[in-house]
Amino acid sequence: MTLDNIFEELKSRLFMPDVARFYGLENNRSGFAACPFHPDKTPSLKIYEAHYHCFGCGAHGDVTDFVARLFRISQYDAAVKLNADFGLHLTNQRTVPMQQSVSPEVAYRNWLHSAERILNEYLNMLCRWQMEYAPKTPDEKLHPHFVESLTKMEQYRYLYDRIRFGTDAEKRRLYLTEHETLKKLAERTKQLTVARSAPKRKAI
Fold first, then answer.
1. Sequence-separated (6 or more) residues with CB below 8 Å from residue 164
2. Is residue 21 in some structural domain?
3. Is there a single domain that holds both residue 73 and residue 149?
4. Alpha-carbon distance 162 to 167, whole Å?
5. Nearest 5 degrees, angle CA 122-CA 127-CA 131?
6. 23-32, 66-75, 87-96 — which one is most confidently predicted on average?
7. pLDDT at site 89
């Protein structure tokens, strides 16, 4: 299959809304998303069925153009990436050069999605601990998980609310100041989840 044929196949088999969503963009009800190619306080990137257009910075193109611009790679490498990511088997090449990197704006958007998920999982865990480890009698020693649920709930619920409902300026400030905090929280939550799901050995 020639390169031109690969580009045509990509355009015919992939829809722009699916590609945008796959790489982290969320559309509002009008089909607009925050443009990853410039600081965009009000969503100005319109996602059409076969292409995109930003009414703020003028970025425009099809699915291949979108991925090339998003990851700062060539059109060919963008085609290879789409082929691999969506399992289309249009070419034997499965990877693109290692120098690909998302733009700072896309990295920020991806962090917001990840942070919301991490905090949601942790807050759900704290709520479960409050019920599971609540003392049965006034004299019972408090379980560390129960204590943590009481001392951390307000702090992380506030952070969750700011990341989900805060202004763009607040979110960008948290991106700079809470990046490491969320990374450590994700690691700890994962360890606790694994420990909880591990089968318990019966005493002999």
1. 116
2. yes
3. no
4. 8
5. 140
6. 66-75
7. 77
* Confidence at residue 104, expressed as pLDDT on a 0 to 100 scale: 74
pLDDT at 4 over 80: no
CB 80 within 8 A of CB 98: no
Name the packing angle between helices 144-165 and 168-177 (round to 10°).
130
Same structural domain for residues 109 and 32? no
Q: What's the residue count for the chain?
A: 204
Mean pLDDT on 150-167: 93
Only one residue has tokens 């809470």, namely 178
Q: What pLDDT, on a 0 to 100 scale, did the predictor assign at position 99?
A: 46
More confident residue, 196 or 63: 63
Domains identified in the chain, total number = 2
DSSP string, 122-153: HHHHHHHHHHHS--SSTTSPPPHHHHHHHHHH
Across the beta sheet with 52-54, the strand order is: 32-33, 45-47, 52-54, 60-61
Give the Cα-Cα-Cα angle 92, 94, 33 (nearest 5 degrees): 125
